[in-house]
Amino acid sequence: MRRVLLVMFTIFFIAMPCFAGGVVSMASDPWPPFADPAHPHGGLSVEIAKAAFGTQGYTVTMEFMPWARVIQTVSLGELDLVAGAWMSDERKENFMFSEPFLINEIRFIKRKGDPFKYSGLETLPGLKVGVIRSYSYSDEFMNYPGVIIEPVNNFITNIRKLVAGRIDLTLEDEIVGMNSLSILDPALAGNIEFTGPSLASKPLYVLSGLKNPRHKEIIEAFNKGLKEIKANGTYDRIMASYGMKQL
């Protein structure tokens, strides 16, 4: 009997990694279609994360809050993950990054009819550009001589300032920008247009704070799960449901 119990225990112990997991708490600001409190699955980034973690036996909870609070809360280890963020040298000091799972194309936005055409940072001096606090824009852009940077808390505030003539430009991922306007203020969409080439192509990652004792476990689980959902077709199906192509 003792031998039977020992064999059963050994089998259970060996099998444990397949069922390892628990709850992972994740946060983002509203950033449709990638993080969307109105979407039944929470948005594209959230759905990909839930699917990836699900293959590793984890359950994901999701909270929406202002972006600066997301960064602070996860960096302190009070929550486990940022649902989607760009890489920067500053963030590398406080976070562990996953493998990238999406790409954002960041483009400038101007008032409709404005003759300005963005063709490089050298076309920006003298202009007021609205940005979002705690977002990771390139240092070259943020410190470019003559560019007047005006930070606010969210994208829609920048668009309203732009339409009112209080700033000259703002910038956002094109898919995010148009989705946000269609939800928050559709009338504004007809008053703005994207201009020129992308400022940057930004890979999107999930992040876990280095102060979180589980950060390595969590990121490794996501990476393994991401690989699995790409292999089994789940990633493609999720992307297609949002009208997007695979990374």
From TrEMBL:
Taxonomic superkingdom: Bacteria
InterPro entries: Solute-binding_3/MltF_N
SUPFAM superfamilies hit by this protein: Periplasmic binding protein-like II
Solute-binding protein family 3/N-terminal domain sequence ranges: 23-245
Pfam families: SBP_bac_3
Keywords: Signal
Positions of transmembrane segments: none
Signal sequence coordinates: 1-20
PANTHER family recorded: ABC TRANSPORTER SUBSTRATE-BINDING PROTEIN, MEMBRANE-BOUND LYTIC MUREIN TRANSGLYCOSYLASE F
Name listed for the protein in its UniProt record: Transporter substrate-binding domain-containing protein
